[in-house]
Design a protein that fits this description.
By secondary structure, the protein is an alpha/beta fold. It folds into 3 domains: about 100 residues, no CATH class; about 210 residues, 3-Layer(aba) Sandwich (Aspartate Aminotransferase, domain 2); about 130 residues, Aspartate Aminotransferase, domain 1, CATH 3.90.1150. The chain is built from 16 helices and 17 strands. The structure holds pyridoxal-5'-phosphate. The site of pyridoxal-5'-phosphate has 14 residues, from helix 5 and helix 6.
Length: about 450
Amino acid sequence: MTSAANSITRDVHRLPIPGENAFGATAPYDVEKIRRDFPILQRKIHGKPLVYLDNAATTQKPQSVIDALVNYYCEDNSNVHRGVHLLSELATAAYENSRSVVQHFINAAEPSEIIFVRGTTEAINLVAQTYGRRHVGPGDEVITSPYTFAATGEAILYLGARPILVDIDPRTLNIDPEDVRRKITPRTRAIVPVHFAGRPCDMSALRQIADEHGLALVEDAAHALEATIDGRHCGTFGDFGCFSFYVTKSLTTIEGGMVVARDARAADRVKTLALHGMSADAWRRYSDEGFIHYDVVEPGFKYNLTDLAASFGMHQLTGVEERWARRQAIWRVYDRELAGLPLRLPAPPAPGTRHALHLYTCLVDDQRTQVTRDQVLGHLHALRIGGGVHYRPVHLHPWYSRTYGARTGSLPHAEWVGARTLSLPLTAAMSDDDAADVVRALRLIFST
Ligand SMILES: Cc1ncc(COP(=O)(O)O)c(C=O)c1O
């Protein structure tokens, strides 16, 4: 029996005949437009005939994907079934393609495997199940930063393990390797540093500690897509690197993420766990050779990235550097223009490192102003400028303090920074005027 995937491939191969409607005379979508939006080529990938998005498609806007969705899904219900398959064919090709593009982009010094998953949260949760012979579970401890989004600790909690929070360096806002050493116990299984705001952690110190104690090193690289140390990408120093493609990140698949794994066997296990513990994913099951049985080798999760999400990501890959450069221009304006205000600005990147410039966070200096951080946020809001707080430290959130009895004063640097930090608008979409408005607003606020 021919699989649905392959029969639709044949239909798609008929698309190039100008003016002909491959799916029936009355279908409403515009074949010419789809041909323009998707340069469909017939190629072989991994020995299989595939409908393939040419690299030229990477320069196209997600709008073309949205147009195609509207054409196929909305105008005529009878096309939904075929539309779904066509889109998933296109997107599967995008998924395969994006894997190799990302591999190139990451340019790891050592060969790394890439697995696309649903987010950093799921990535950390999955890799925590592949450390060594026994996965992280109840009674185990995993060291991480209190100065992060709740997701980092949550991924550890899912497994019944306990996140052990260590203090940060108040200048870099990354975990302090000396405090990591102090908090290691016989129950410690892993260290999860967070490259806060895109600033690389001290990976050589952390690697040394992990190796000395036989611990896994898992980088939360949710902010650090573009960050490097001596030219090598963050996320490739640990045993695993976990990236986020959530909407606020510099490359988004709406929801999504990526695991970079150093070890091919560990990568295979992550991939299997990410899709119900199955030995073959849908693409491998339906091939021209006929149906291939899969085995469920262990209970897994539904954490795979969707093909369609991958196609959004692929469209954005080519703009990553350009958007980083634009954020850098805004960052420099802030560094220059805010220098005289009662704010502690971000520390310059350490020599040999590249900051991903994900968040511009400064500290309201209460030695030099009566205006509190929350008042600044309120004034900015009144001036129609969005500010943020990254982060109030994790251990002071009610669930954590209730569950672990954390007291104020237990992680003094994280608490001090968390009470004063303020994130300013920073996106590549901002104009010079937008950046000037932010500067003007802050001058006004601090002059009162
Ligand atoms: C530092 C950090 N870790 C983890 C996450 C979770 O990422 P995701 O939403 O992709 O699961 C985020 C999300 O914002 C984050 O900022």
